[in-house]
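YM 10:42: F-box domain-containing protein sequence, as discussed on the call
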Amino acid sequence: MKMVPYLPAELIDHIIDYLHDDFRSLATCALTCRQWLPAAHFHTFGSVVLWPDTCKTFAELLAASPELALVVHSVEMRSLVHGSRVWQLVDLSFLDVLTAVTDLKLNTIRVADAVHEALIRTLLTVRKLAVDGCWFATLQDFAALASSFRGIESLAISFLLGDPNAAVVSPPPSLPASLRTIELGDLEWDRMPAVELLDWLGGVPDPQQIIGLSCHVAWEVWPAQMILGIFGSHLQHLELVVKTEVSLDRILGKAEFSLSQCTNLQTFALRLWLAEMCVPENQDLPWVPRLLSQLHCPRLYKITLSFYAEDMTDLRTLASENAVRQLSKAQYFALTALDWTSISATLARADFSALRELVIEGRGPKGILEAYIRREHPELHERGVVTLT
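YM 10:58: structure's back
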């Protein structure tokens, strides 16, 4: 009798891994044989996005196939309309069976009443929480939710408060000792109790436990400076994202913003949305070597620089009715406008000797920028640290 060819399970899983985003093919794999089922289910149901009108169907699927609950490790809950009350009408009892979820993202939903209670009561295994554009009644409500995940390691926040001036009846519950990274997203600092929020974040059991921080700056830079004052000396990984339509002199210079307290960094990422085109006359560009020069981190091995600006070859802004600025990643040839002399001099300092990689994120042909650095700054080129991605 002729033997049917047999593939080891590890090889089958590896093959199915290539189909991770092809849900039609994954469905076919799931129907092929039982051996293929676990890998197909892992990619199909490992990360789920829930809308108010899809929860009932998903709950019925879990009831029919309880084993799927253990496959779900990432859940995102979204709303079409910002702050809509529609989630209050959804039966969220199915969340009780999702005992393997480690990542939870709440996107533009109203977290109040039954939704707030259900999230606090369930999903106890969450390690990573991202709150993006959500609505909470008070800071106390948000703190109660975030602190309910006792094993949380990563917290990303961007939310609105219904009553930013609500009196604090009792201190918000503190964050767990497991927390390691914080991301302060696009927060409207003038519409919330900013100092109370930052004090709450700084009230972790041990500030030295926070090793990663991402700060988004739009109009107010003092919250970023305050949070760096709390965690800066212990941070290992820092990302600074500046999105503003005014000059950096008005945002960073006026407040005398500084990174000097960050002395233990291993990685640093600077992402700038520029108010003008990426040309030598742009007065924001000198801030790049200025910020880098403030770093004194003997363990710093990676720096990432990313720029978004108006494309000099893209005329969509002029063609749009209201001249809406079209920002995109700067082209590599435009990045010759940076003050590479100052950047090179800063990176040549003894306290940058551990640097192994200077990542420049851009788009388009790389040759012009590579040739420029090789010709004008041979000492930086010879270090072999510059990577264009």
